[in-house]
C-alpha cells in the first residue's frame, strides 16, 4: 500500500513512501532547478562539431562550482563525471570522453545540480551541426511526449495517466517508448519514490497529490524499445542501433495542476528545433 508523508519530517533516505513538500520545498527546488536550466541554456551555444563531451562535462562542473552547486552525478554510485552525454543510439547514461561530436549527431545532456540540499534535474536534446530530418523528427516527437506527459499531471489523477499520454502519442508517431528506465521522485534526494513510468494506462500507478515532486523524462526510440547496458555498467544503447532521444523536466504537483521547475529562462527547452 502506498503511503504519503510530510517531507519536512521524513528521513533523508528512500523509504518507498511518497514525500509531500510544502512551500519551503518548492522554493528550494525553484532555485536548484533554475540553475540547472541556466546551465543547459549556456550549453546551447557551445554544442557544435568538434566539441568533446569531456569539454561539456568540465563546463557543467565549473558552472556548478561558480554558483555554489555540486553536480549530483559526480561520484554517485561510482560514476566519475558531472553529467551524462548520450549520443545518437545511446539511450541514457552516456559517459563523457574525448571523442569529438560530429556533424549530424544528436546528443542528450543530462544535468542535476545540488544547491542548498535540493536537486535540480533536467535534460535536453541538442543537434550537432546539420542533422537529418529523421533525427529532427524524433526530437520533435520526444519533446511533444514530454509536453503531453506534463499536461496529464494534476491532483487526483494516477501517475499512469502520464505514461498513457506519452505512450499513445509516441506509438501513434511510429516510435517506441523505452521501458527500462523511468522518471522518479526528486527533491532532497536524487532518486526517490514514486517511479514515473512513460507507458501504461490512466488507471495505473499512484495517486498524484499536491506537494509531490518528480521528474518526467521519456526516452523515445525510432526503432524498437529494447535496450542493453554496455560493459561499463552505465551506458544504455538501443539494441537495434536506432536513434534515441530524451527530454526531462522536474515538476511539482500543485492544487490545480503542476509547476515546471526546470523551464528554460531563454526559451531554449528544445534547442535547434523550430519554435
UniProtKB/TrEMBL annotation:
Residues 28-255 form the Peptidase M24 domain. It catalyses: Release of N-terminal amino acids, preferentially methionine, from peptides and arylamides. Its EC number is 3.4.11.18. InterPro entries: Creatinase/aminopeptidase-like, Pept_M24, Pept_M24_MAP, Pept_M24A_MAP1. Keywords: Aminopeptidase, Hydrolase, Metal-binding, Protease. Gene3D superfamilies: Creatinase/methionine aminopeptidase superfamily. Pfam families: Peptidase_M24. The keyword Transmembrane helix does not apply. PROSITE patterns: MAP_1. Substrate binds at residues 93, 191. Its cofactor is Co(2+); Zn(2+); Mn(2+); Fe(2+). Binds 2 divalent metal cations per subunit. Has a high-affinity and a low affinity metal-binding site. The true nature of the physiological cofactor is under debate. The enzyme is active with cobalt, zinc, manganese or divalent iron ions. Most likely, methionine aminopeptidases function as mononuclear Fe(2+)-metalloproteases under physiological conditions, and the catalytically relevant metal-binding site has been assigned to the histidine-containing high-affinity site. A divalent metal cation 2 binds at residues 121, 184, 217, 248. GO terms for molecular function: initiator methionyl aminopeptidase activity. A divalent metal cation 1 binds at residues 110, 121, 248. Monomer. Removes the N-terminal methionine from nascent proteins. The N-terminal methionine is often cleaved when the second residue in the primary sequence is small and uncharged (Met-Ala-, Cys, Gly, Pro, Ser, Thr, or Val). Requires deformylation of the N(alpha)-formylated initiator methionine before it can be hydrolyzed. Belongs to the peptidase M24A family. Methionine aminopeptidase type 1 subfamily. This is Methionine aminopeptidase.
